[in-house]
Design goal:
CATH superfamily of the largest domain: DNA ligase/mRNA capping enzyme
Bound molecules: nicotinamide-adenine-dinucleotide
Largest sheet: 5 strands, mixed
Radius of gyration: 20 Å
Low-confidence stretches: 316-327
CATH topology of the largest domain: D-amino Acid Aminotransferase, Chain A, domain 1
Shape: globular
Strand content: 15-25%
Oligomer: single chain
Number of helices: 11
CATH architecture of the largest domain: 2-Layer Sandwich
Number of strands: 11
Mean pLDDT: 93
CATH class of the largest domain: Alpha Beta
Strand order of the largest sheet: 2-11-10-3-9
Length: 327
């Protein structure tokens, strides 16, 4: 491809991805499946690798999340809320492991977790009391949604220890609540939500807290923003500490010593995924030792010590299943 054609394609991809981001993050109403968005994003990443002069700072590849709604107070994230790099197949996971090994050596282990398909939030506690909760927003500035988060019963308003801490997690809507909500919306001749993720996001960004309270939202916490002052030296240790404080973490996590064990975890959850009472859109693999995480560092958009494995599109899975059945 010549530079001129690439430039034209890049421009078209910017326009499309910006539009899809707006629909997804601002309107909570995506018009295309996530797999289509991911395909276009990968295309843009490849073009930018091939033609680095076309990579601009406002490219969708360089940005986290979407715009911040004006109707909420803004919250500055002292520690940015980043996105995750993606893996779509076994090879991508092995490439990730190779990069990690190059940086920190052979001696490392991973924590594998479910990638909950919801909305990232940050919760701030002072002396054990819940004082502020916010959305990820654009990663640096989020929306203050404290009152809506206070309606989620699994968010402790007081911790088991009187410490000051900021923690991060994913708010989600269980499948059953999503189905009941969409049934109700259809009865009322309202537009149904496209998926539980958008339903959760739409519920949290309501000005009327009664609406969020009625939506049966839940949360899993998956990280501590700053572990510097704590007696924690691994991600698995941080998760155990969250449990001790009274937070809800996802118990389906597993420590894996090798990338083969990680791939085994991916295969298991690709099978078991439909049995879960909530939606996951993939799995997250994180280097366990915090010292090694520090060595690996970050890109502009995501940590180098973690990767999100994304499941193939549902449509594709369904087609494969129906082919299997008809044979
Ligand atoms: P991401 O979904 O690829 O991954 C980052 C997010 O994963 C984190 O912010 C966190 O919220 C979440 N997460 C869930 N479980 C986690 C765990 N255990 N540990 C750590 N993080 C966990 O990145 P993103 O920037 O949030 O969203 C991009 C994705 O959103 C796209 O790849 C696409 O699938 C979807 N999207 C779709 C459209 C559309 O139009 N359909 C538009 C924009 C984005």
């Amino acid at each position: 491809m010549d530079l001129q054609t690439a430039e034209k394609e890049v421009k078209e991809l910017h326009q499309l991805l910006n539009q899809y981001n707006y629909e997804y993050y601002v309107l909570d109403q995506p018009s295309v499946p996530d797999a289509e968005y991911d395909r276009l994003m990968q295309k843009l990443i490849q073009l930018e690798e091939e033609f680095p002069q076309l990579k601009t700072s406002d490219s969708p590849t360089q940005r986290v999340g979407g715009q911040v709604l004006e109707m909420f107070e803004k919250v500055q994230h002292e520690i940015p809320m980043l996105s995750l790099g993606n893996a779509f197949n076994e090879q991508d996971l092995r490439d990730f492991d190779r990069r990690v090994t190059q940086a920190v050596g052979e001696d490392h282990s991973y924590v594998c977790e479910l990638k909950i398909d919801g909305l990232a939030v940050s919760l701030r506690y002072e002396d054990g009391l819940f004082v502020q909760g916010s959305t990820r927003g654009d990663g640096t500035i989020g929306e203050d949604i404290t009152s809506n988060l206070r309606t989620i019963r699994s968010i402790p308003l007081r911790l088991k220890e009187n410490i000051s801490i900021e923690v991060r997690g994913e708010v989600f809507m269980p499948k059953r609540s999503f189905e009941a909500l969409n049934k109700l919306k259809m009865e009322r001749e309202e537009e149904p939500f496209a998926n539980p993720r958008n339903a959760a996001a739409g519920s949290l960004r309501q000005l009327d807290t009664k609406i969020a309270a009625s939506r049966n939202l839940d949360i899993f916490l998956y990280s501590i923003a700053d572990t510097a002052q704590l007696d924690v030296d691994s991600h698995s240790g941080a998760l155990r500490f969250l449990d001790q404080l009274g937070f809800k973490t996802n118990q389906e996590r597993r420590t894996c010593e090798t990338i083969d064990e990680v791939i085994q975890f991916v295969q298991e959850w690709t099978e078991k995924r439909p049995q879960l009472p909530y939606e996951i859109d993939g799995l997250v693999v994180k280097v366990d030792a915090l010292e090694q995480q520090e060595q690996l560092g970050f890109t502009a958009k995501s940590p180098r010590w973690a990767i999100a494995y994304k499941f193939p599109a549902e449509e594709v899975v369904t087609t494969l299943k129906s082919i299997e059945l008809s044979v």
